[in-house]
Amino acid sequence: MLDFITGPLFIISIAVFVVGLLARAILYVRGLDARLERVAYSYHTERSIPGALASIFKWLIPGGTSGWRAQPVATFLFFLLHFGAVLIPLFLLGHTVLLETYVGISLPSLPGGVADVLSIMALSAIVLFALRRLSSPALRQLNSGQDWLILLLTFLPFATGLMARFDGSAYQTWMIAHVISGELFLILAPFTKLSHIVLFFMSRAQIGMDYAIKRGGATRGGAFPW
Amino acid sequence: MSELLCTPTPVTTKEGILDLLKDKGGAQYYSQMKEMKVDQEALARDLEQTCKSRTRTWLSICAHCAMCADSCFFYRTNNNDPTQIPSYKIQATLGEMLRRKGKVDAEFMIKCMDAAWGKCTCCNRCSVYCPHGIDTGVMFSYLRGILFKHGFIPWEMKIGSGMHRVYGAQMDVTEEDWVETCEWMVEEQQEEWPDIEIPVEKEHADVMYILNAREVKHYPEDIAQAAILFHVTDTNWTVPREGWENTSLTMFAGDWEGCAQNVKRIYAAIERIKPKVVVGTECGHAHRGTVVEGPYWAGRESGDPPVRFMHYVEWVAEMLRTGKIKIDPAKKLKMPCTLQDSCNYVRSHGLGKATREIMSYIAEDFREMDPKGDHNFCCGGGGGLNGIGLYRKERNVGLKNKLDQIKATGAELVISPCHNCWDAIRDMMEVYEEHNIKWSFLKPLLVDMMIIPDHINHNEV
């Protein structure tokens, strides 16, 4: 059973994650329609490419856009979560070792102390996000089952991972829980709002291109001032 | 009255328009709407064929983070009512329609209409504040198209769409009315400006000027002022006989077929006249409908119009920059002024640069609104809302946001080169009893402030 979870199921979950997200991205692009959406996607690449890149990268910087600056609490929580949520799965020593063993790719790994801090930040952010969802009148109007699902799916790997890290006496149990919750995250990502892992980039590129090609790209002088 | 006023069929005859107009305020029309059957199969097909990955992804990927809430003036002016959050508004309407695959009833469609025209002006400000770049304004515009096709649109929108289809203009102005008004304005100005003319259909003119039918019907002095400004700048200009009107109530109504007809009419005028440049009057949605969206409706793959189009503010900026219009320093605006950024040509076409260039020539005490430029708020009356009686109360509430912005600048004059913004500002001053703030288009200010070139014949009258 343990062999299955850490062996074939692990491979399956990585495959579903990669193939699934790739499929979402490809289907997104194929489903764009220049005529219906009234955006000439294949024209004016001299401004649509910078426009797409500015649209993506400005939003990846804390406070990099008026949108972030207008919402300091949401911004703080977003980056508190995502620094860890992105860096830990990719660059935690325990994960890079797996990647090297199974796939042969070697990535740099985070120093232990940094990894601890990022993980605790991410976990705290998830708890704070949950509290925000419960207490903000605006979010209470919008909350859906899926929002809670992805909070849970993200909470479990971080919680169990940290417990495995800090509770040596029950290490085996926490590791099994961590692996299963991690695989659950990977398998469900392409089918839930976790797909924003790729769709954020697709959607931001699209709106950046829209503004660059059609809504002022020729007259504004530069990319849209996000 | 026993005739059927509310149907999915667009109005394409004079009689159809008159029948609708006779129904004061649309009382019969709205009452018939409640009984109108929804063709659920057709609706499902429409959604299947026209709602693709961009919109479906927007709706499914929304993180429910509520960052769009504060970006929306409806949310802000309605005491942060959570049902005014852009995400909520679109999920409860288009989102729900898609989830039910079109299996909805008239009551639901009316609720969608109330949101699409009464809770959104399609100002696109929310698209700037969403981390995913979700454009709820674009989605509401798409929803308007669906609602138009199925007949669930406000009374004035049905009439407006009919006007464009029948008269080629947003009002019942015939070709005769149009040309005669031009002749009348020339006559009126002849004494002061002996050599003034408004050439009609002059082939190979440098500039083809297109405008808003309400200028012909209600504000013909605007046409006279345009003619004076072209005259003193020695512009080789003309107006078309047909295709002279560039507004688009059809765009507000979601009547895409009507939009295409309008744009093609203008492009046909370009083919006849072959100008170097087309200049549009001070109207925001006319620019959006003709220059930004228009090329697509006319089937132009590149999204570019066939010839260079300038919004009036671009033309004015160029005239000031090149010295063709010179401002008398003694007549420069001394009182504190501010500038309205019209969504349809600022956020949606980057022309905030041009308007600010103009302000640098004409105003000594220019105060920016906060926020400004591409981040500024809708006037509160765009997207056709100014003209829809059913949502007048809602509009008046929304106007408060812009009024607060204006008052915060301390300005006594708002420069507003857009008909809808101009109307919204006029109305907010009346509704909220502000008597000390004026508002103006550019043309009358420029005609007053300009130095008349020596070579232009002019008589003081």
Question: N-to-C terminal Cα separation of chain B, in Å?
Answer: 53 Å
User: Which value, in Å, is the CA radius of gyration of chain B?
Assistant: 22 Å
Q: What order do the SSEs of chain A take from the amino end to the carboxyl end, as H and E?
A: HHHHHHHHHHHH
Spatial strand arrangement across the major sheet of chain B: 2-1-3-4
Q: Shape of chain B from CA axes?
A: globular
Structural summary, described in words:
The complex is a heterodimer of chains A (226) and B (461). Chain A has helices at residues 2-6, 8-30, 34-37, 45-59, 66-70, 72-91, 93-103, 112-135, 137-142, 145-166, 171-188, 196-213. Chain A is mostly helical and 226 residues long. Chain A has one domain (2-213): Fumarate Reductase Cytochrome B subunit (Up-down Bundle). In chain A, helix 2 packs parallel to helix 12 (196-213) and helix 10 (145-166) runs antiparallel to helix 11 (171-188). Chain A is globular, with a radius of gyration of 20 Å. The relative contact order of chain A is 0.17. Chain B is mainly alpha-helical. Chain B folds into 3 domains: 37-153, Orthogonal Bundle (Fumarate Reductase Iron-sulfur Protein, Chain B, domain 2); 164-321, no CATH class; 329-449, Rossmann fold (3-Layer(aba) Sandwich). Chain B has 22 helices and 7 strands. Chain B has helices at residues 14-22, 27-35, 40-50, 53-61, 73-77, 86-99, 106-118, 126-129, 136-150, 155-167, 175-190, 213-217, 220-232, 249-253, 256-273, 284-292, 294-297, 312-321, 352-362, 392-409, 419-431, 442-449; strands at 207-210, 237-238, 277-280, 308-311, 337-339, 413-415, 438-440. In chain B, the strands form 2 sheets. In chain B, strands 2-1-3-4 form a 4-stranded parallel sheet. In chain B, strands 5-6-7 form a 3-stranded parallel sheet, with helices on both faces. In chain B, strand 6 (413-415), helix 21 and strand 7 form a beta-alpha-beta unit. In chain B, helix 18 (312-321) packs across helix 19. The longest helix of chain B has 18 residues, at 256-273. The relative contact order of chain B is 0.11. The interface between A and B is large, with 59 and 55 residues.
